[in-house]
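To close the section, here is one more complete example, presented without commentary so you can practise reading it yourself. The ligand is pyridoxal-5'-phosphate.
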Amino acid sequence: MKLPPRGAGRDEVLARMDDLRARDADFRGGKTFSLIYNAGDEVFDLLDEAARRFQHTNALSLSAFPSLRRFEADVLSIAADLFHGGEGAAGNLTSGGTESICMAVKTARDHAREARPHITRPEMIVPATVHPAFHKAAHYFDVTPVVVPIGEDLRVAPETVEAAITDNTILLVGSAPCFPFGVIDPIPQLSEIAVRRNLLLHVDACVGGFFLPFLEKLDIPEARAIPAWDFRLPGVTSISADLHKYGFASKGASVVLYRTRELRRKQFFAYADWPGGLYGSPTMTGSRGGGPIAAAWSVLQFLGEEGFLDLARRTMTTTRKLLDGIREIPGLRILGNPPMSIYAFTSDTLDVYALGEILETQGWRLDRQQMPPSLHMMVSPAHERVADQFLADLRTGAKEIEGKPPAMDGMAAMYGALAAIPDRGVAARVILDFLDGFDRG
Ligand SMILES: *Cc1c(COP(=O)(O)O)cnc(C)c1O
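Output:
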């Protein structure tokens, strides 16, 4: 498309956009199990209103927009309190989990440059299940990721992590929980190692950060199974937590928090020699839209602790129903022992990728995973209305493919083939080709 020579009318423009979104995933109806964390229409409407008021503002200059400065300070102080950060904790708002993680890795690298200048090839130790954002950060900031395998319970074993430490190690990482299987790495033991070996420890609570603090307070069995994972543990030096996940904020809002202000300072960037003025920036982005910041603040104020507790309780009730329902379907099996509302299921007898496709024809969207092939689910409060229907469709779908060989064509076959390529470099090239093709219609 070229820029239209003449502008279209407003109604025409919006009508065309509505046409295009008709085929988008139905997240309001609770049909998606990733990407969107749906706390109901009341919350969506509040976010729309809050974002609209601050849509055109720019958090690049907090002096021009003291409102945004207030929102950011309030949100960070709420997060620090939820994660038991104490007086010294400090952080920043970012555009999402990936930026928060990039910042934590860059901070660890720059901390090591000063504290341990003999290190020329810094390494960080990450579990195999750690989010790819850590590999992206490693790629961007020239830190070598040392991947350690997970155990039978799908969590990293503390001994495996300790055995991987070298003179070049600058950072340990654990997830609370990890995205693929929803299990929490043994953070108390990792903290103990970090203290003893004088290393930084980042806890990736991108998905759990705004859920676990409330789950822990509920009087349900799942709550008692949650070990400490945050700044209560002396070895934890930084935490990433996404507001745009279980904080139910609009996309584009996450926090990165450090135990101390001194550590956070390693994250900042300043340039004093620009003719355009003195330039300072705390995170990756330059200009930052005020919309997501305002929306994040609004939802925390709107829900309050009571609101979050209620959403966590409802989400866990739905999760239990779904987990039990899936376990009852012959051939399906939950991976590991997920303590919160994110998990995956696999099968030793059925082609789960084919099952994913059958579900998709009914509008359900579940992420496909590999190692082993599995389907992934993140449960939102809005899923309580559709849980029974989902289980019924899943049961029918599983019956339909019972005894059938794995699919030989379509998406299911493609996932299967890609997951099975022994040379992961080839698989990565297929992904790059896919990214390269997005603008070719
Ligand atoms: C979602 C997620 C991330 C990445 O967050 P984005 O907002 O998608 O950049 C990182 N870690 C975990 C555990 C996550 O769930």
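Once you have examined the tokens, check your reading against these statements. The CA atoms of residues 267 and 376 lie 33 Å apart. The mean pLDDT is 95.
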